[in-house]
Write a structure and sequence with these properties.
Layout (H helix, E strand, L loop, with lengths): L1 H21 L17 E3 L4 E3 L1 H8 L7 E3 L6 E2 L4 E3 L5 E3 L9 E3 L6 E3 L2 H6 L2 E3 L8 E3 H13 L5 H14 L8 H21 L19 H5 L4 H4 L16 H33 L6
Antiparallel strand pairs: 1-2, 1-3, 3-4, 5-6, 7-8, 9-10
Amino acid sequence: MKAEISWEESRSILFEWEVCRHAVPVEDTKCFKCMIEASIKCEDCHRLFCYHCDMKKHFLNPFHDRFSWASGYYEALPPTVTVDLNGTFTDWRRYDLYLPIFECQECGYSLPADAKMLYDGGYFCSSARKSNTFFSTKLLNNWHFLKRNSPGLSMKSLLIALQALGSHNGRDGCINFEAAKRTFQEWRFMQYELANVQSYNKTVCPACHTNPFAIHIDGNKKLFRYEKVGRGLRESYCSESVFAADNDVTNHLNHIESLKTKASQQVKHRVLNVCQELHAPYEW
């Protein structure tokens, strides 16, 4: 009841703050850099820009969320578009992402960025050789924990949500599902190998834990029944370090069964011999 009363008292204030956040700037709003009239707001820089400064700043920062208010309300801008004071949208050119080149101003030595530099910066390539797409390692890590705690959520749903989010912020495009899926699998396999180096305890099974994620092991371990869906069998990345092969399990069970049968026969013969020595009736 106290929480309900608190929210009811705060609801009108929060709505007022939200309306103010959507309100466009008043006239004579200045660009923070050159102090001429601004026409663009960047929510990542938390600054107002004129279209000249916007081009200089965001040509190298295409993933910033920028908005213009030329129509009287905020509109999301694509990475290649800016807008002047008259509301004229300018598409400066197609955006191509180039790798940076680091150059020493003293001796002139230049060092082009490679895949390792991008990886150190938090980006995982989508191809082992030549990649045109990079995925944020933070996204891959977040998706790992999200799917672990939400077994019913699929990667396709995640990509649809990411595309909708990009479209909302002015970036329209299609994410390649197969490339994203393979990239995530390779990244998770690398994390598995890293866990082996760190001597991670692999015997803790989410399906057998006190608080399992799902009823069935397929839901806990995200196992897909390839034989039933017609995709054929695939070699396991984990080899036999977690789950034993079917043949090994069958042979092991057959060996245990043979030992049980042999032990049962030995016990039977021993009881028979004892009964014969005691001249007692025997019934097995």
